Amino acid sequence: MCGICGLINLNKKRIRKSDLVNFNKSFIHRGPDESGIYINKNIGLAMNRLSIIDLETGSQPMLSKDRNKVIVFNGEIYNFKSIKEKLQEKDYVFKTNSDTEVILNAYEEWGYECVKKFDGMFAFCIFDKKKSILFLARDSFGEKPLYYSRNKNKFIFCSELKAFFNLRDFESKLNMKSLSKYFFYGYVPAPDSFLRNVNKLLPSHYLVFDIKNKRLSVKEYWNISSSETVNLNKKIEKNLENLLAESVQRRLVSDVPLGIFLSGGIDSSLIVALLKLRDPKLKIKTFSIGFKEKAFDESRYSSYVARKFGTDHHMKILSSKEMIKIIDKLNFIVDEPISDPSIIPTYFLSNYTRNFVKVAIGGEGGDELFGGYPKYFMHPIADILSILPRPLLKMISYGVRLLPLNPNNTFFNYKVTRFFKHIKDDYEIRNQSWTSCFDINELKSLLIDFRTDGIFKPKEFWSKKYKGDKYNKLMYLDMRLMMNDMYLHKVDRASMANSLEVRTPFLNKELAELSFKIKFNDKVSFMKTKKITRKIAEKFFDKKFVYRPKKGFGIPLAKWLKEDLKDEVRKMFSEEKIKSQGLFNYNYVKQIIDDHIKGISDYSNKLWSLFVFQNWYDHYFGVNYEKESM
User: Fold this and answer.
1) Residue 207 burial (CB < 10 Å; 0-12/13-18/19+)?
2) What pTM does this model have?
3) For the stretch 255-270, what's the b/e string if a residue is b when 16 or more beta carbons lie within 10 angstroms of its beta carbon?
4) If we measure between CA atoms, which residue out of 240, 298, 293 comes closest to residue 270?
5) Which residues are catalytic?
6) Residue 54: pLDDT band by 50, 70, 90 thresholds?
7) Dihedral sign, CA of 600, 604, 607, 611?
8) H-helix or E-strand containing 433?
9) Which helix (H) or strand (E) holds 615?
10) Is the backbone of residue 54 left (phi > 0), alpha (psi -120 to 50) or beta?
11) Hey, is 221 helix, strand or coil?
12) N or C: which end of the chain has fewer CB within 10 A?
């Protein structure tokens, strides 16, 4: 696991070593074990390494045998040994035991097509001297980040957005078009970023940059394309279980200590169970955090799983006071704003886990592949209720808003209001609007320069690529958008800020392809989510544990914003500051703050998305920043 970067001067000026070193230092937390640089006239590559596999000889940048190719690589290729064997049959000789050298030789043998052979999480760049090209690729699901920028004088790439602010002659400008997208989605969907002229390489895509001719091309190498769906049967169910168990097993390859994030949810619990099923004598370290606030604490479930399978379990109990302290480090952790507040407990879990191991296995992807979100079973209901006249739906929505807030679930009224408000929307837009921080009408009130152009473009891009059934498509869109740009972003940044590698067994191409062939009703039905994984889990756990309602990695955010962070929020969004900044309508923001603090409505998701952005903006741009004029 590493952080990687590269600078290419298209005007043929030699790369200054100090520029490359400073650029690379921006994310040294991603790889504190070793740093390396490669400079060839106007081309410079660098990396920071977190040593996981082949600790002695896996150093980077790594050169090919003929020294005409150089690679910097972030991630892990889980099937590298089987690929290595195939290459050895073709007379390739290896000097190391690393997956990095396997990628380099796989490129030598199969060219750009090599990425189709990798099961792993990765972002890498190969500089091919003979062809005068850069070949960059990102893994199938987007577990590892890769940003790039190109202008007439430079081509630049790196693992984290914050690194661009450390470039001596790079003009960092806020991408105003991304503002609307961030506040609608809760993140900036790839290929866009929050910086103008900086893109994220899409998952399951590779990029080729022709240095001599200054041409850039991006191509997709994998996608879920099956339009056929089948009914679940025992054979398919067993196949899914075996694929998941095999995927978990592959992710155990490591030359350093390894553990499992055990939240006590179905996905992480199933990972532990499948490992123990394969090898009952295997000693497993598991890690979880609990909360002093009982309404958010689910530590009893992780403790139950740990006892059942005899894991070496480690748990840390957190208080609100501890978590709030970390907000000062939020800019460093988050890198690019996302609205998911669970990045805070994820950071603490990673920080605690890193005291014991260098690698952890997590359960990300299970909800998107197998239908884990309650909103999925609400769509068929919405389709039925959408026949009701719009005035009646508006009346119901308004009536829910007037109900007193439930102190144990203040967000319930907001979600029900959202449900009725967007029932008549196109189902793809409705799927996003139900969970968005601000819907389109609210964005018009929030932003001074509201830009509708392109706000649905990311959804439309992926929507055209999926040919399956209607409701499976919603899970596919969440996998391609929300999972990639928010949840995987969260896990990557929170873990790598602590120099911890996290691997995700659910994100396996074969598993995903089979899952999306299965009919929606076999995964989700009324008030039932994740039916397949729960059915598999029944083999290991009692039904009461398996069929309890889903509960996310929650924190008492509404209370924080109403009490602990109240003064900071008011200061951050003062009239003078907001009007000077010129991005938001002050009266609308003030109304949100006032209604939340007075307990009229729970606007915690809106306020948190504003808080995270404003915190990031103040740090990198400041109130005197002259925003992009377009």
Assistant:
1) buried
2) 0.95
3) beebbbbbbbbbbbbb
4) 240
5) 2
6) low
7) positive
8) helix 427-433
9) helix 604-620
10) left
11) coil
12) C
